[in-house]
Design a protein that fits this description.
Layout (H helix, E strand, L loop, with lengths): L2 H12 L15 E6 L3 H12 L4 E7 L6 H14 L6 E4 L12 H11 L23 E5 L4 H9 L7 E7 L5 H4 L2 H9 L4 E4 L24 H11 L1 H10 L5 H9 L4 E3 L5 E4 L2 H13 L22 H25 L10 H4 L10
Parallel strand pairs: 1-2, 1-4, 2-3, 4-5, 5-6, 6-8
Antiparallel strand pairs: 7-8
Helix pairs in contact: 1-7, 2-8, 2-10, 5-7
The structure holds calcium ion.
């Protein structure tokens, strides 16, 4: 990144440093992910797609690690695997005339290896409205270059009113910010809060992953099965673990879910993980907990309103979730008649029935 651009970035971010992080899946549950479909993007998306409480409204696939057309086809395969066609999937803008980065050919080949077979296209053409979510402000989680987000803000400046904040994976000089300096300038000038989530020593992947796929949980979530498949391929493992020895795009999603294991690294809105153990535990939790199968079963993927449960069952639910998790609670739900006949009230219906208490 040219020095002048870097200074502009830091200058812009310094203005935001005084404000506390505004994000969080509880206070702002609508999320839009902008991705360039690298291997780390796929892992971050796997955690996002299977999370029971994240309201993922849209995914935009911008050129970067992968080209736009190839990338959006790859993300279609991933979204289909998680059976999340309820999420609006958009191709990014074709506004970038930059030559491909030197690692594109290998990124496209390796990403293609770990995904399921191609599916008939279902993505939408690029539209600025991808970042605009009706009624609620969105957090935009940027895992690739800012090209599409900037194009949307140029085309529809009013979009900024619908965006609560922008979280970008990577440090100020990282690929996602330096790939398209003009886009960075547009986003910076929008005045929207920007926070960067940068890797550091605490983001190191376990060296054991170089040898074999880790056993992180019971192997029952779609996300864990996907990670295991990804790391079962020696060539992919070499790239994902040795060439990229730290969590990168995945960190931004970890930060979105819970900023506690992160600390501000300076006065410029850049956060980095401060506790390796906490980061690994959160990563394991997010990849292993969530969607258990890729077909919908009754209420499996929906929050159950408190109003549908008798008070004693609500207390029992909390105890089960604390002790044995969502899978156990769902089994109990299927086997027991525990719903009441009273209709949920609007306020109770808006709450997360399956929410696990935040620790
Ligand atoms: Ca990326």
């Amino acid at each position: 990144m040219p020095v002048k651009t870097a200074l502009l970035v830091l200058g812009g971010l310094a203005l935001l440093a005084a404000s506390a992080p505004a994000h969080g899946i509880d206070d702002n549950p609508v999320l839009v992910v902008d991705t360039d479909a690298g291997l780390d993007d796929l892992v971050a998306l796997a955690m996002t797609l299977q999370h029971a409480r994240v309201k993922l409204a849209a995914i935009v696939v911008t050129e970067g690690a992968c080209g736009r057309e190839r990338g959006v086809g790859y993300v279609e395969r991933l979204v289909d695997r998680f059976n999340r066609r309820d999420v609006a999937l958009y191709a990014g803008t074709d506004g970038s005339s930059r030559p491909p980065p030197p690692f594109r050919a290998s990124a496209e080949r390796l990403v293609g290896k770990v995904l399921p077979d191609p599916v008939p296209p279902f993505h939408r053409a690029f539209a600025p409205g991808a970042y605009g979510v009706a009624r609620r402000k969105a957090t935009v989680l940027v895992l690739g270059p800012l090209t599409s987000l900037a194009a949307a803000l140029r085309a529809e400046p009013g979009l900024r009113d619908g965006i609560a904040e922008i979280l970008v994976a990577g440090p100020a000089g990282g690929f996602n910010l330096s790939r398209d300096p003009e886009a960075l300038e547009t986003v910076r000038k929008s005045g929207l809060p920007i926070e960067l989530v940068a890797p550091g020593p605490a983001a190191a992947k376990p060296t054991a992953w170089r040898e074999a796929a880790p056993k992180l949980g019971r192997g029952t979530s779609v996300g864990e099965a996907f990670l295991a498949q990804l790391l079962a391929d020696a060539e992919v493992r070499r790239h994902y673990v040795e060439k990229l020895p730290v969590l990168y795009d995945e960190l931004a999603f970890l930060f979105y879910v819970d900023a506690a294991p992160f600390a501000r690294t300076d006065g410029n809105g850049v956060f980095a993980p401060r506790d390796r153990k906490a980061v690994r535990a959160r990563f394991a939790e997010l990849i292993t907990r969530g969607r258990q199968r890729n077909t919908r079963v009754v209420l499996a993927d929906r929050a159950l309103p408190d109003g549908m449960l008798r008070p004693d069952v609500r207390a029992r639910r909390e105890a089960i979730l604390r002790k044995n998790g969502e899978e156990e609670w769902f089994s109990v739900l299927l086997l027991t008649r525990c719903t009441s006949t009273s209709a949920p009230t609007p306020s109770s219906a808006s709450r997360w029935g399956f929410a696990r208490p935040r620790s």
